[in-house]
Amino acid sequence: MTAPARFILRLGVVAVAVAVIVGLGFLWRVSPAADLVADGGPPNRAASASSNRATSLNPLSGDEGRGDRGAHGVSLSHIDDLVQTTLIQLAVLSGVVVVDRQRRSRRRRGVPLGA
Amino acid sequence: MSRRTRLDFWLDLVLVVAFTLDYSFQFTGLTVHEWIGFGLAFVLVVHMTLHWDWVVRTTKRLAGRRGGREAVRWIVDLCLILAMTFCIASGLLISRHALPALGLTTTRDGFWTGLHTTTADVTVALVALHVALSWRWIVSVARRIFAGTTA
């Protein structure tokens, strides 16, 4: 099989895998477990007072919040949001690198990993 | 260094930077957030396609075996595929600018909004973990790429 044909075949497999995951999402939506992630109440149910509050607090919900942010585009005054995301990722990254280096160092010295 | 290694490195870098920007919703604003997410969907599918042989190979190797660094990476990657697919798919479904601009109708369902924010939070940690588990490869390839360009 040629390389482009192999790529297209794998692309098809990945597309099917993605479709299956999205399908699981639709099943999740109609299952009782939808409450675990539902924002503003589960689908097709009248919104309660608490769910209305959750909706208004969420930056992704509500027309006003969405419209405002979309209209302004990139906001340099909110660069702290980008810095915060970068710091979260760097914290996880550093943690794993430190643990990995320690493990490797111990292995080289012949110290058991659990010690 | 092979072209494939260079492609993997730059594509992975684009994915990490794009996701970091996309997660910083207040910085990008909704329109840019949605278009980056839309682009991420395509790049992610290409990324998964390029690494599909690793997925198959590792799955076969791990079948019937337990533990090990590779098993951790496989589990992290599986969770990441699930979380990121849910995140992007739900983001597309609740899109207010990108998809409507293409003439497609979207929804205001609370489930998809909740799924989008929840999986985004999970994905940001998993992306960092995914990158971290390949840090030796990243450092090695970056050294070769940048040593090549400065020499």
Please describe what this structure looks like.
The complex is a heterodimer of chains A (115) and B (151). By secondary structure, chain A is mainly alpha-helical. Chain A has four helices and no strands. Chain A is extended, with a radius of gyration of 23 Å. Chain B has 151 residues and is an all-alpha fold. In chain B, helix 1 (3-23) runs antiparallel to helix 2 (25-50) and helix 4 runs antiparallel to helix 6 (110-132). Chain B is globular. Classes of the chains: A mainly alpha (115), B mainly alpha (151). Chains A and B meet through helix 1, helix 3 and helix 4 of A and helix 1, helix 2, helix 4 and helix 6 of B.
Please sum up the structure shown.
The complex is a heterodimer of chains A (about 120) and B (about 150). Chain A is mainly α and about 120 residues long.
SSE blueprint and pairings:
The complex is a heterodimer of chains A (115) and B (151).
Chain A: H1 3-30, H2 49-57, H3 63-72, H4 79-109
Chain B: H1 3-23, H2 25-50, H3 52-62, H4 69-93, H5 98-101, H6 110-132, H7 135-150
What labels would you give this structure?
heterodimer; A: 115 residues; mainly alpha; extended; B: 151 residues; globular
Kindly report how far apart the N and C termini of chain A lie.
50 Å
Q: What is the helical fraction of chain B, as a range of percent?
A: over 70%
- Assign an overall shape of chain A: extended
Q: What number is the mean pLDDT of chain B?
A: 89
Q: Largest interface, per-chain counts?
A: A-B, 56 and 50 residues
> How far apart are the termini of chain B?
15 Å
Tell me the Rg of chain B in angstroms.
Answer: 17 Å
The portion of residues forming beta strands of chain A comes to under 5%
Instruction: Give the topology string of chain A: H per helix, E per strand.
Output: HHHH
Order of helices and strands of chain B: HHHHHHH
Low-confidence stretches of chain A: 41-69
Q: In terms of quaternary structure, what is this? A: heterodimer
Rg of chain A from C-alpha positions? 23 Å
Largest sheet of chain B: none
The tally of helices of chain B reads: 7
Low-confidence stretches of chain B are none
Secondary structure class of chain B reads: mainly alpha
